[in-house]
Write a structure and sequence with these properties.
The complex is a heterodimer. Helices cover about 0% and strands about 60% of the residues of chain A. Chain A has no helices and eleven strands. In chain A, the strands form two sheets. In chain A, strands 2, 4, 5, 9, 10 and 11 form a six-stranded mixed beta sheet that branches. Chain A has a five-stranded antiparallel beta sheet with strand order 1-3-8-7-6, with no helix packed on it. The mean pLDDT of chain A is about 90. Chain B is about 0% helix and about 50% strand. Chain B has no helices and eleven strands. Chain B has strands spanning about 5, 10-15, 20-25, 30-35, 45-50, 55, 65, 75-80, 85-95, 105, 110-114. In chain B, strands 2, 4, 5, 6, 9, 10 and 11 form a seven-stranded mixed beta sheet that branches. The model of chain B has no long low-confidence stretch (mean pLDDT about 90). The chains are: A mainly beta, B mainly beta. The interface of A and B includes residues 102 and 104 of A.
Chain lengths: ~110, ~110
């Protein structure tokens, strides 16, 4: 059972426009969410996070929105740049017996067209 | 530069052979993790260690073994019992295994079967 879902395997956006990547989750116990960016043949790098006590977190061109009632989060990139072309993973975590483990989505490949 | 080093970048295994993937970090992190990535799937947790000389099974530990004798090292052995070992393996670390903290990833090892 996939607890964290990224239903769009790929997305293409024109340079300068907004990129919106979506992530849905099923476990209501998740209370911390992250987005990672991954280039080919490299490990993921941390991008931005949000805890469940917030509904928005912003860092430069990147903003993450959390809608707890819908169990949905999204990553907005504005403006999109060609260097943003990568695979983006969302991840979620809940405390289980004091252990903090992350469940990752399947990723969305973003292509920013120049 | 602090970071996580995984070696080798590519590894080939013969049928019935055990192979060991190396993961070294100089970030002084207490917690370390091993993930497996397959095409079209998210990262799945194999093993994790919150402190030296202690480790726990993740979601897909069967056919794998680990050790954590030193803080900076967390090698993963893919045993002959792992029937489908071909995958991209990622090692990660975080300052501690408690509290919500982003994980830092290495650049991965791609394992293939000859």
């Amino acid at each position: 059972d996939q607890q964290v879902k990224q239903n769009s395997p790929s997305l293409s956006v024109q340079e300068g426009r907004i990129s919106i990547l979506n992530c849905d989750y099923t476990n209501s116990m998740f209370d911390y969410f992250l987005w990672y960016k991954k280039y080919p043949a490299e490990g993921p790098t941390f991008l931005i996070s949000i805890s469940s006590i917030k509904d928005k977190n912003e860092d430069g061109r990147f903003t993450v929105f959390l809608n707890k009632s819908a169990k949905h989060l999204s990553l907005h990139i504005v403006p999109s740049q060609p260097g943003d072309s990568a695979v983006y993973f969302c991840a979620a975590s809940a405390t289980t017996s004091g252990t903090y483990k992350y469940i990752f989505g399947t990723g969305t490949r973003l292509k920013v067209l120049a | 530069d602090g970071g996580i080093t995984q070696s080798p970048k590519y590894l080939f295994r013969k049928e019935g052979q055990n192979v060991t993937l190396s993961c070294e970090q100089n970030l002084n992190h207490d917690a370390m993790y091993w993930y497996r990535q397959d095409p079209g799937q998210g990262l799945r947790l194999i093993y994790y260690s919150q402190i030296v000389n202690d480790f726990q099974k993740g979601d897909i530990a069967e056919g794998y073994s680990v050790s954590r004798e030193k803080k900076e090292s967390f090698p993963l052995t893919v045993t002959s019992a792992q029937k489908n070992p071909t995958a991209f393996y990622l090692c990660a670390s975080s300052p501690t295994g408690t509290g919500y903290q982003p994980q830092h990833f290495g650049d991965g090892t791609r394992l293939s079967i000859l």
